[in-house]
Amino acid sequence: MFTASEETRKMIRPIAQRYVLCDVNFIAMLQELLGLSGDEAEFIFNLYRSKKVIKRDAVNVTWTVKHGSFLDAATVAGIIKDFRK
Fold first, then answer.
1. Which of 6, 17, 43, 44 is deepest in the core (most CB within 10 A)?
2. 3-class secondary-structure state, position 75
3. Exposed, middle or buried, 59 (CB in 10 Å: 0-12/13-18/19+)?
4. Amino acid 60: pLDDT
5. Which helix (H) or strand (E) holds 63?
6. End-to-end CA distance of the chain
7. CA 22, CA 43: separation in Å to the nearest integer?
8. Rounded to two decimals, what is the model's pTM?
9. How many CB atoms neighbour CB 76 within 10 A?
10. Burial 33-55, CB ≥16 within 10 A → b, else e
């Protein structure tokens, strides 16, 4: 089993924080832009991530969508209606 040294942990921590911040920023953007609740925004985020509709940009601490229509309010409302059970 591999055990990371303290130096390795210090190097990895900022990267991990950027990844988490990417997720938080995207969910917050969905809530602000589309007026979604926290649960709805997390559902859309997890669905988009699992279907590879979004791609992480760790340098700019954002997720980007493959097509702008995935951020359209009517599209998102339809996805929530059709896929959320």
1. 44
2. helix
3. exposed
4. 85
5. strand 62-65
6. 40
7. 16
8. 0.85
9. 22
10. ebebeeebbbbbbeebeeeeebe
